Amino acid sequence: MKARIKILTELKETFRRFQSQPVSRVIELINPVLRGWVNYYRVGNSGRWFIPLLYSVKEKALYLAVCKIYCIFLKMLINHN
């Protein structure tokens, strides 16, 4: 349980810190962390922890991408007028 909270906190901090970066860059940064965590906890019955972690990462990456698209759209609207 502690490891799960720690990885979620670390991912949250990474997403927050690199908000201005492209989504692909953020994914490049979190990918080694996730791979290491999954490889370490692969042994045993850890599958039930992987699914919530996967959904959390997908949700945060999607939110970051949507925010970037929305900002681009707003800039286009402002510059159009």
Quick synopsis:
The protein has 81 residues and is mostly helical.
Secondary structure: elements and pairs:
Elements lengths: L1 H16 L5 H18 L6 H34 L1
Helix pairs in contact: 1-2, 1-3, 2-3
Radius of gyration: 16 Å
Query: How big a fraction of the residues is strand?
Result: under 5%
Distance between the termini: 52 Å
Oligomer: single chain
Biggest beta sheet summary? none
Taken from the alpha-carbon principal axes, the silhouette is elongated
**Total tally of structural domains:** 1
Structural class: mainly alpha
Structure commentary:
With 81 residues, the chain is mainly alpha-helical. The protein has one domain (2-80). It contains 3 helices and no strands. The chain has helices at 2-17, 23-40, 47-80. It is elongated and about 60 Å long. The termini are far apart.
Using brief descriptors, characterize the structure shown.
single chain; 81 residues; mainly alpha; 3 helices; 84% helix
